[in-house]
## 1
Amino acid sequence: MNDNVLNVVLGLVASAISAGLGWLAQALRRRRRVERVRAFFGLPAGSECLIVVPRSIGTGSHAHTVTRRDAYALMWLAGLVEECGARPELVAHDAAHRGLGAKTELCLGGPVSNERTAAHLAWGLPGVLITSGPGPGSNVIVVGDRDFSVDHDQTHVLLARIATPDSGRPVFLISGQTGVANQAGVRYLVAHHRELAREYGRNGTFALVLRVVNPEAYGPDMVELAADVTTEALRRSPAAAPAGSTAA
């Protein structure tokens, strides 16, 4: 083998080694990213996750229904769970009679339509009051001395992560004032979970109110942070009524 052939062979070997090392480095980075996502959501590979929803699928005319927008949100949640290598289990809100921490819970909908959400708010975020009623101005998220209501050009969603005792699996709440708000909250969680993990830690509790801007024109696409209400949400207000009470 002459020197030219040897140089070509050595170059090919070096290129193969370099490509292999590059692929390995990328694979390790991808795996670390996936592991961070799994840690934040409490979804190790092969685990199960509860997606807790109102019982009926319908148009939203009844308090205990999943609207078409909520169905879209469920697809996003299921995709997120499967991306982590876990298995989603859809459970009706009045059938999820189990303790906390054994499985990650993703609860969709407000405390009026989802009894499990109401229980989690009362236990983990006692400073949050979400009212609902038939008249205008009756659907309000109240946290501390701030209230967030629905009007013609905005709606809101409470997005929260609640840490459970003994480092158990977390609870996530997506409690919107409308089906569009629920969908917007899920999409925000999927898009910003890395920033949320950096800000609040992989095992932290947080409560955010997101504003959905002009949902009639933009749907769930225009979302901004209205307020970080974590401190107020964790503090029980003496005047607070039970979560999910109906406005007069």
## 2
Amino acid sequence: MKNFLDKDFLLDTATAVKLYENVAEQLPIFDFHCHLSPQEVWENKPYESITQLMLCGDHYKWRAIRIHGTGERFITGDASDWEKFAAWAETLPHLIGNPLYHWTHMELKTFFGIEKILSPETAREIYDECNEKLKTPDFRPRSFIEKSNVLFIGTTDDPASTLEYHQLLNDDESFKPIIAPTFRPNGALFIERPSFQSWLDKLGEISGINVDSIDSLMSALKKRVNYFHEKGGRASDHDIQKMFYVETSKQEADSIFRKRINGKVLSVCELDAYHSFLLKELGKMYAEKKWVMQLHMGAMRNNNTRMKERLGTDTGFDSVGETNLAEGLSRFLDTLDQENVLPRTVLYNSNSKDNAVLAGMMGNFNEEGVPGKIQFGSGWWFNDHIDGMEKQMKDLANVGLLGHFIGMLTDSRSFLSYVRHEYFRRILCNILGNWVEEGKAPNDLNLLEQMVRNISYKNSEKFFLER
């Protein structure tokens, strides 16, 4: 029987152990998609308690505490930091089998040297020990990043952002990791949202363009893409809840845009047409800059209207959607490819039923000299657990080239979340080790070590940065 979180955690074979200890454990981290605040990195924000560091903004954990039946006061309300941490400790014993159970204990062990199991009985002791350490400079954002050997971080940024903190960090020679902005134009795409007009005003102000037509919108967005590129941006990211594509002329898109800014309600067909047109035009901009386009598809957002009105978005009330991605995605990628303006693209799905769709789709669009131009992204959100990561990699391997996979990302708001890369790397090494034991892969350590090295770090570095 193994001990919990021992040195061979998730590693079932001698080959898996060798691959992890000889290669994966030593590699730096290329975290190409997350939701960290560059301002907090620049200011090297001190934390008053482990609650602020571990629980603040983490809707994964908030969701679990709610499912446990705990009141909102102890999650996002006015309860003390200690009371909120105690609520998490009360929830945690019921989470065995959930990656949050592993991640929480990995965070405590990796960053605070605490190997005790968090429970109601140990909560106060762990809380106090963490808080004492948080008083020192070694327990701030920059230290967490550097101790985790993170060399690249891709944040998620609105086109109307000034990117001032990215510039400050870039100019700071004492801080070596690259923190690059990622262009996320949700404000432009979600024309149906009540906030659309106010977002347009912000875009107009920062771009210096009066946005009153589809042409002026395109000009403003292109100006911001250029600005992001100047500040080190090399990727975009899109929240695609339903993947439809219909060919739409600029005249049609302009008519729809003008109808919306004049306060009229758009039909579903008009929304689909506008989304299709804008996404295609953005894809062209990304291809011109040789950026990576990321498509996060299929999440069902803001299911609980009452709680959305109370707390806002991104607070733990999203779930897996039931969508048909294949036809719309194929049409979208194909229309860009026909014009030779298809950028490097990463496809993520929230519903694992779409694994085969994405793993197969990526093989339809290729480019000489660009290994794995279209990527099937790592298990995302409701799939970033052991079974989900294994399934994603095995489904990719079954019909594609696992060796060109760009690997893991944190997709997190927490500076402790780099343990997720360790989690992924252990799972990767275990898959390969099991294949060797079963005679499904050769017992060639040089070959397998290079594969681990590429998937864990080198492929993503090349995919996002080399041109």
## 3
Amino acid sequence: MTADELRNAMVDGVRPSGAALSGRVDAAMRAVPRHVFVPEVSLERAYGPDPVVTHRDGDGVPVSSASAPGTVAGMLEDLDVHPGHRVLEIGAGTGYNAALLAQLVGPAGSVTTIEYDEAVASAARAALSSLGAAVTVVHGDGMIGAPGRPTFDRIVVTAGAWDIPQAWWEQLAEDGRLVVPLRILGLTRTVVFERAGAVLRSRSVVEDGFMPMRGVGAVREQNIRVGAGPDLVVRLDDDRQVDASALRGALDHPVAVCWTGVAVPWGWTEHLDFWLATLDGFCRLLVSRAAVEDGRLMAAKGPWGSMGVVEGESLAYLTTRPSPTDDAAMPSYEVGACGYGPRGADLAARLAERVRDWDRDGGQGVQLWIEAYPADAGRPEVSGVLLAVDKRDSRVLVRVAEQVPAAV
């Protein structure tokens, strides 16, 4: 198949949130050749459904990639770009997304993209230039905003952001829209924010995964091994401390398991992690396949580990088992918690009770509403708030969507 045929087939298969693309996004994705931005891979892979890693650091860790076409399309739909808009992109990556934005804003609009890594910025600039795309590529730190402090109708962030920096508040126009994969206690959600004065209010909240942002003020994830090997890793998203040496003995204790009676199709638990995040010691635990296969540890709930808690010499995390009501057409799994250490049973019971709370609060049907305020804007009303998280430049409130947020 030719590049044009593969590109059209790619767009035909993109259905963000199960819906067909809008006409403008559809036309942009058919017009921009994705393979120009990932020249190292085959045409088939360039137009495939998966992300493509394009740059790695000295340790081989990916630092830049072309996001999956479905993710790109979904963010463009969320951004709702119109001709004439001024758009700021944080994280140029390959430049593909900026090229799509240039198509959407047209000649009356403008696109500025900021990339932290000089080599990545240079490659994106070259690819965009080869297509004649009217995009300003800035090598710099996206966390301090665009040079000259212009305002933008739309800001889109293509990396996991721990905070909403002051520069973004200053450069987003009133009634503007910010689409950002926001990290909240280690939980990443792509949030579509609209600005109304001194508050950003979400229009949608979708679970997704992105590489963490780099730059001034960026917060790296901590990965703390329990013991000498990679069998169990505690992942934290902030500066909290865990005594890994104290946890080594936890695995010498028999496992304590607490099943919840909550069964869900495919084991999918929409936004459950936010209920668990209200517990002290909340974190993600990564469990190696080898430790599960030889029976040393129970499997984590998902392939990327499971949310859980750590306290002193003990820990617990979520696990699953096939539900008695399982059927071949739609497998169902019961959610449980397994604990290790002298207080493992207590921690497992705490996790299990929060799973039941989530189920009582709406379970699979629950929707979240996220608000963000500048850190210096005073203390917003927090009644009915599920979670309140203070960051350097902002305060983030997570509510259950059915609860109407207080007026500002």
## 4
Amino acid sequence: MPVLPREFYDRPATAVARALLGALLVREIDGQRVSGLIVETEAYTGLDDMASHGRKHRTPRNTIMYGAPGHAYVYFTYGMHWLLNVVCEPQDHPAAVLLRAIDPQEGQSIMAANRPGRPPRDWTRGPARLAQALGVAGEENGLDLTGKRDLWIEAGPPVPDEQVRTGPRIGLGSVVEPWLSMPWRWWVADNPNVSR
């Protein structure tokens, strides 16, 4: 399938988050494809979104969010987890989509090795597990996802609206309303890899 082009990401984060459902996230590890269908996402819209890393100003941590759409924004959180996001919207408008879960398709043996002792349903359910299963860490921050090198996203089968659910984003802590309750999380209904 074709790699999603930069134009795909150069639109509102909310539109990108919904459209990414069903796309195939691909990682190349030692010449082997490791992939999964994207089944859960969250949108962070930038300067106007009190839950977004880009809400105040550019920092060393969030500078990738201010760049061209279609790049990986990978950050460390809680002192232990890497999370993978996709930068979207026009340059200098810091918005991104967090990839929360994938449905494994290729390279399951590598995922299992990266998530030792975990059952398959726990390999990629949740953004930290997803990043660990695919071996994504700080070195992948800033990668161009529109090329076919190391990490990219391919077009996949569209997910019909009747199979899509929306709700508030997860783990926002002390974020104030209305941002706490914005229904900017999308997921594929009844997929076992979606966070509960």
